[in-house]
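As agreed, record copied across for absentees:
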Amino acid sequence: MSRVVVVGAGVGGLAAAARLAALGHEVALHERADTHGGKLGVAEVGGFTFDTGPSLLTLPAVLEDVFAATGGPSGLVVEPVDPVCAYTFGDGTRLEMPHDPDAVPAALDAALGPGSGAAWRALYERSGRLWDLVGEPVLRRPLDLRTLLRMSARLQDLRAVAPWRTLDGLGRALLPDPRLRTWFARYATYSGSDFRRTPAVLSVTPYVEQRFGGWYVRGGLRRIADVLLERCRALGVAVHLGSEVEAVTVADGAVRGVRVGGHEVPADVVVCNADASVLYERLLPVGTARRARRDLRRAPRSLAGFVLLLGLDGRDPGPAHRVWFPRDHAAEFDAIFARRPRPVPDPTIYVHAPDDPALRPDDAGEGWFVLVNAPVHDPGRGVDWDGPGLRERYADHVLATLAARGTDVRDRIRVREIRTPADLERNTGAPGGAIYGTASHGPRAALRRPANRSPVPGLYLVGGSAHPGGGLPLVLLSAEITAGLIGPAGSQAGSRAGSPPRAARVPARPRPSRRPRAPWPSPSR
């Protein structure tokens, strides 16, 4: 039996701990905070309950795979979100994006004019071909340069991946309507990036959301972390909350354990769910993994988020997810990724307003999670989100901007709480509050993301800052990859490349004529 220490009880750490315990390892999990879940947080304010992390689940079968591999169904109730989102563009045009991709072209034609649906369909089919290339060999396996080189050697595959093209360039080539290009560019923020620098390969993101749908977990997405924690404990994982790992210890070039509270905790394997930059800059001894540390220093940080938790009087029935775009979408990213960043003057505003009785104190009110993209907390070279009065001033500005776009909730506010990138850094340890670690900028972005197997034997990474990236499905896949690399107890841990479990594979693109319902296990209902 191998002794495994998992550092961090975010979703990646919880999923990795559960998988490794199910493989027979002796697993201990240490989390610096007094609670679990990491960025998949929850807050209770004035009787309202808010998910403070992801608000939409895609690829729900990836979640069910974790539980299938660790003992049985999750018991979570997963419901389709339809429409997936309501968009209001800078000119006032409103679009509700259906859950069913077969209904999308008609919705686009009705909202944006004839021809918009056909343009979207061309993009959807192209992204489907791309998904066939990257779904299984890239997202569900360790980062492998040989796989990427094989793609580049086949002309047809190279054209689909198009490493020379950005999301912005692809949108301009395929989507004539500027509003549809604004919608498409939004998906760069799913990796915390600027759409003008994000590789076109990330066009698979909207494809996945539309092909497999958007889903909600009854009771809030935080329930995912709760049930993962329950599964870990049922499998015998020793869970230590409020237990900060001060260092990863190394001897003779290999991992030997961790230091907690000044005491050495021996381990054969360490799996780190902390941000990769925290691992390489703070937890490892100086001089260890120099190249990984240098690469991370060169990579740009992802964007952060400025959040308002609003408990409102009255009810405003409508889609759970709502987005208001500014007139100048590019200016938002100019502000965030500038040499001297600043809070966005005219931001995109995202609202999550789930109609879930479990999340509100009574039927006379509703909770709104309001998010705007923001630069990271960087008092020395950028924005100091702890600066006197800044959070209150910017919160007022966001609400005034929302009112100017036709939705004024200021006279309905019962409770208000503000969360800045500085708060996210304090609460989760994410440097600067960068939600996704590093931004996906440039054609080599996938290669710059830290691998799941570190250069130090016995040390592995999971979570949004490592391969394959951020967002719930990818974080869960990172845990699957890492567990596959380590292998079952009794094997020589970390000595083989490892293969992902065969129980469920990333599905191929569906036939255009219909939306098949069986390539993934059915989500719980």
Observations:
- The chain has 17 helices and 19 strands.
- Residues 3-78+219-299+439-486 form a domain with the FAD/NAD(P)-binding domain fold (CATH 3.50.50.60).
- The CA atoms of residues 177 and 440 lie 25 Å apart.
- The chain has a mean pLDDT of 89.
